[in-house]
TrEMBL record:
<keyword id="KW-0479">Metal-binding</keyword>
<dbReference type="InterPro" id="IPR000623">
    <property type="entry name" value="Shikimate_kinase/TSH1"/>
</dbReference>
<feature type="binding site">
    <location>
        <position position="62"/>
    </location>
    <ligand>
        <name>substrate</name>
    </ligand>
</feature>
<feature type="binding site">
    <location>
        <position position="85"/>
    </location>
    <ligand>
        <name>substrate</name>
    </ligand>
</feature>
<feature type="binding site">
    <location>
        <begin position="16"/>
        <end position="21"/>
    </location>
    <ligand>
        <name>ATP</name>
    </ligand>
</feature>
<keyword id="KW-0028">Amino-acid biosynthesis</keyword>
<keyword id="KW-0963">Cytoplasm</keyword>
<dbReference type="InterPro" id="IPR031322">
    <property type="entry name" value="Shikimate/glucono_kinase"/>
</dbReference>
<keyword id="KW-0460">Magnesium</keyword>
<comment type="subunit">
    <text>Monomer.</text>
</comment>
<protein>
    <recommendedName>
        <fullName>Shikimate kinase</fullName>
        <ecNumber>2.7.1.71</ecNumber>
    </recommendedName>
</protein>
<feature type="binding site">
    <location>
        <position position="123"/>
    </location>
    <ligand>
        <name>ATP</name>
    </ligand>
</feature>
<dbReference type="InterPro" id="IPR027417">
    <property type="entry name" value="P-loop_NTPase"/>
</dbReference>
<keyword id="KW-0067">ATP-binding</keyword>
<dbReference type="InterPro" id="IPR023000">
    <property type="entry name" value="Shikimate_kinase_CS"/>
</dbReference>
<comment type="similarity">
    <text>Belongs to the shikimate kinase family.</text>
</comment>
<dbReference type="Pfam" id="PF01202">
    <property type="entry name" value="SKI"/>
</dbReference>
Length: 177
């Protein structure tokens, strides 16, 4: 179903909450473009985010992330935007997300996400001895920020990625913002 939206559709949530997976589904469903901010950042920096974190540090990464997000949200053609898990940390990013997109928070419990990402080696923030504890800490810090920026909150615990994607689609289609 081709949909005409006045704003981009942005997905926010913890690492592993399904932003990339569900973003791709929605873009296909609505015949819209899709962009993964992490991929756009890697194109700009010319290396893996994991390596950039290691060499340049998180603060520099957040600056690049803010630049890339601003550029993508300024594009006129409406796209589905899968943000990085930490995009909501900067107030300027939250303002831009709200101004230029309908924001969906994919909420999922740290326990569920830890199960999904058991064998992950790509997410720098989770390459620690106790990834579950890290996810619990990130959840405490970020859940209020994801909620602050969100037009819709969709809970994914116990649902498949397809089920979550269908719920997001129904919400956005039934309640056009
Ligand atoms: N609702 C779901 N149920 C089960 N598995 C899921 C669900 N959503 C995503 N997954 C799986 O969890 C993993 C992480 O999902 P994904 O890469 O889409 O998360 P992300 O939010 O984009 O993470 P990041 O912020 O690190 O980019 C993938 O293997 C994906 O298939
Ligand atoms: O949660 C985070 O802070 C991050 C999530 C990823 O999407 C990447 O943007 C990066 O690894 C940082
Ligand atoms: Mg992703």
């Amino acid at each position: 179903m081709t949909q005409v939206f006045e704003k981009h559709i942005s997905l926010v949530g913890l690492p592993g909450s399904g932003k990339t997976t569900i973003g791709r589904y929605l873009a296909r469903r609505w015949s819209m473009g899709y962009v993964d901010v992490d991929v756009a950042i890697e194109e700009q920096i010319g290396c893996a985010i994991r390596d950039f974190f290691a060499t340049e540090g998180e603060e520099r990464f957040r600056e690049v992330e803010a630049e890339v997000l601003a550029r993508l949200l300024a594009r006129p053609e409406k796209t589905v935007v899968a943000t990085g898990g930490g995009a909501v940390l900067k107030p300027a990013n939250r303002e831009r997300l709200r101004a230029h997109s309908t924001v969906v928070y994919l909420s999922a419990s740290p326990h569920e996400i830890a199960r999904r990402l058991q064998r992950d080696t790509q997410r720098p923030l989770l390459q620690v001895g106790n990834p579950l504890q890290r996810l619990l800490d990130l959840h405490v810090q970020r859940d209020p920020l994801y909620r602050e920026v969100a037009d819709f909150v969709v809970a994914g615990n116990g649902l498949s990625a397809t089920q979550v994607a269908q719920r997001v689609a129904m919400q956005v289609e039934l309640t056009p913002p």
